[in-house]
Amino acid sequence: MPDAAPSDPKPGYLYVVGTPLGNLEDMTFRAVRILQSVDLIAAEDTRHTGKLLQHFQITTPQISYHEHNRQSRLGEVLHHLQERQHSVALVSDAGMPGISDPGYELVAACVEADIPVVPIPGPTAAMTALCVSGQPTDRFVFEGFLPLKGTGRTARLEAIQREDRTVILYEAPHKLVKTLADLQERLGPARPITLGRELTKRFEEFWRGTLAEALAHYQTQDPKGEFTVIIQGAPQGEITLTDDALRTELERLIRQGLSRADASRQLAQATGQPKKRIYQLSLELDV
Questions:
Q1: What are the φ and ψ backbone dihedral angles of 110, each rounded to 5 degrees?
Q2: From CA 177, how far away is CA 196, in angstroms rounded?
Q3: Mind giving me the DSSP string for 158-178?
Q4: How far is Cα of residue 161 from the mean position of the Cα atoms in its chain?
Q5: pLDDT in tens, 120-131
Q6: What percent of the chain has pLDDT over 70?
Q7: Beta strands in the chain, from DSSP E residues, in sequence order
Q8: Cα separation, 226 vs 176, whole angstroms
Q9: Which terminus of the chain has fewer CB atoms gathered within 10 Å of its CB, N or C?
Q10: Using an 8 Å Cβ cutoff, are 187 and 212 in contact?
Q11: Is the Cβ–Cβ distance between 53 and 35 less than 8 Å?
Q12: Cα separation of 107 and 231, whole Å?
């Protein structure tokens, strides 16, 4: 295997290059040098990256590589690399490529084809927000963007409900209120949360409080900018059950003679989960 970290770009190597989240002063010297020296830059949005390249006087040619053309473009990029005639840098619009974008597919294809992949580290929104969130950082899990709807979204929310590590999410401004409402329904109103928006940019802001407070705040304040959401994990000792497990326990309590309301109240006290949501589950039971 060739040297995995050459000082200068080599033909047949893919360089995964981190770029600033917003503040151009976060660009590293190494990232500038690599982008100046490679033969080709595969960019998520060539217009967006073009502004970055112009700022640093980088004239390397670009091709687009994004969510909508990745299938057709993947083979082209691999061809450049497999011929060992060109070096290629992969960049996203902001941060490290491959984090919640299709860059990981190109990296995986290169690994499969035994093409060397070299990381050029840069910022990521997830780590940037986590380190100043005030939430525990010793154990955490990155969930990216939640599915929009359906069983996929429900399953992910249930997983977050049971998760005792700090959880990191990304969310778009027009979907934030719905996501906060769904999280409150699953995790309860008192769960601590930190929201970071417009990271490293002029209007960077961090909001800290509980899920209930966050929902109330953003129902009256129009969310603007991309959000990174940091959620404290489930408290140790708190019983977290799936909806199916909650229904089973509700059915057992109701068959013992408790009303739906009393069974829901008792189960909410035992698990620390919202009584309203448990009561809604009780209404689905045929008992």
A1: -65, -45
A2: 14
A3: HHHHH--SEEEEEE-GGGHHH
A4: 17
A5: 999 999 999 999
A6: 96
A7: 14-17, 40-43, 62-64, 88-91, 117-120, 140-144, 166-171, 192-197, 205-210, 227-231
A8: 9
A9: N
A10: no
A11: yes
A12: 29
Query: Listing from the earlier edge strand, what are the strands of the sheet with 40-43?
Result: 62-64, 40-43, 88-91, 14-17, 117-120
Cβ atoms 168, 143 nearer than 8 A: yes
Which tokens belong to 43?
Answer: 């960019």
Run of H or E residues at 60: none
Tokens of 80: 């450049």
Residue 62: phi and psi, rounded to 5, are: -120, 155
Q: Is the pLDDT of residue 244 over 90?
A: no
Phi first, then psi: give them for residue 228, nearest 5 degrees: -110, 125
CB 268, CB 275: distance < 8 Å: yes
Give the type of residue at 28.
Answer: T
C-alpha dihedral (151, 153, 157, 159), degrees to nearest 10: 70
pLDDT for position 170 = 97
> What is the token pair recorded at 193?
């949360």
CA distance 241 to 235: 13
DSSP letter at 235?
P
Q: Give the Cβ contact number of residue 47 at 10 Å.
A: 10
Does the pTM surpass 0.90? The reply is: no
Contact 282, 263 (CB under 8 A): yes
pLDDT at position 240 is 64
Whether 147 contacts 156, CB under 8 Å: yes
| Angle subtended at Cα 227 by Cα 226 and Cα 232, rounded to the nearest 5 degrees | 170
